[in-house]
Amino acid sequence: MSISDTRGLSTIILAAGEGTRMKSKKSKVLHKVLGKSLIQHVINAAKYAGSEKTCLVIGYKGEEVKEAIGDGVEYAVQKERLGTGHAVMQAESFIGEEGDILVLYGDTPLITGETLKNMIETHRKEQNGVTILSAIVEDPTGYGRIIRDESGNFVKNVEHKDANEEELKVREINGGMYCFQAKLLKEALKELTNDNVQGEYYLTDTLHIILSKGYKVNAMIVKDTNEILGVNSRAQLSEVTQIMKRRINKKFMDEGVTIIDPENTYIEPDVSIGIDTIIYPGSIIQGETVIGEDCIIGPNTRIEHAKIGNDVSIESSVVLESEIGLSTTVGPFAYIRPNSKIGSHIKIGDFVEVKNSTIGNHTKVSHLTYIGDADVGANVNFGCGTVIVNYDGRKKHRTTIEDGAFIGCNTNLVSPVTVHKEAYTAAGSTITEDVPSRALGIARARQINKENWVDKKNNR
């Protein structure tokens, strides 16, 4: 039974906790793992699994969560923290009479959409009232246990503190994620009580309420126990980051990308990389970056929200929100700032900075040059030490350098100015006026040598 041809699916994500062990001024669920907040990873997994709408139950720093996540989801507020069942109660108006509903946690970023899909399919195939995501672990201490009968049927969920000697030996634990028939969840929430030592409403009590009404409850064992890991401290944040990093890097290696040192390479989940590209250690690839085939990235390179063509080499450099064409080399120690479009067969050498500029094919910018707010044509050569002076103290201005121009070493181009096609500038010039096509622009004082100047200086 596929998800697409059955009843609708919604998701409630619990995100009201304070997360005191994080020792942070911001909401726990907004801390990031490889570029995305904890809760955004969970939202994305639910969407991948087919969830049509999502409700976040917020509390501590709730307005901050709203601002970060935006209008793509609905919100419910838990003003008092009175247990997981109480949290879900706050979203009662979100729960419909038909379809299924996932209940997830906002601090479990390793849960995958594929696992949630499998849980939903199991839930519907077995016609369960509720399906629990469980895991088998080496050390179940502190976790609720899934107790089954001799035939493997779910009998009950028992908390560690309430378990007897035999139940404590059980290694199948409740992973804390559920798929409910929406109507049954809504009915069960009305029967929850806080008649316990903590005075809280437990979501796990709904399992026994639904079971008591004659509906089937079962647990699906997750293949990778890491998927249920929650983040409650900075150490756990680091732990899940390492797990996700390894998961992503393995995916790329399986797809034909060479990663020299996976432990020291950080690639975010929305990145795309073509086959036979090689990633060297220390590289950080972020955002919705697209890298083509046969590229060499790194070592020690950072690329964010960029589009990189095939056969590009980027060494020890930073590329932000820009495009680079085919067979171009960048670095070492280059800085490509946002809104730059660099063409094909170009050399951007050491200690070159490019900002908000276009650079045409076959142009060479070999070293020690700043190009800001400029439109550069094809087959242009920049001498060492060129600076485009784009800021007058109040406004930015653009410079145009047309095809085939040759910019001499230590040239200052004071914007706005145009160096026309195949024109030259003399080394050491400060160009403040347009240079005509095929002309030589010279803007420097004539050299004067003062004979015996040193002797006169020393005799003063």
From TrEMBL:
Lineage top rank: taxon: Bacteria
CDD domains: GT2_GlmU_N_bac, LbH_GlmU_C
Coiled coil stretches, renumbered: none
Keyword DNA damage: no
Positions bound to acetyl-CoA: N390, Y391, A427, R444
Catalytic class of the enzyme: transferase
Region named N-acetyltransferase: 256-460
Cofactor binding annotation: Binds 1 Mg(2+) ion per subunit.
Location relative to the cell: Cytoplasm
Family indicated by similarity: In the N-terminal section; belongs to the N-acetylglucosamine-1-phosphate uridyltransferase family. In the C-terminal section; belongs to the transferase hexapeptide repeat family.
Subunit structure of this chain's protein: Homotrimer.
Role played: Catalyzes the last two sequential reactions in the de novo biosynthetic pathway for UDP-N-acetylglucosamine (UDP-GlcNAc). The C-terminal domain catalyzes the transfer of acetyl group from acetyl coenzyme A to glucosamine-1-phosphate (GlcN-1-P) to produce N-acetylglucosamine-1-phosphate (GlcNAc-1-P), which is converted into UDP-GlcNAc by the transfer of uridine 5-monophosphate (from uridine 5-triphosphate), a reaction catalyzed by the N-terminal domain.
Protein name: Bifunctional protein GlmU
Gene this chain is encoded by: glmU
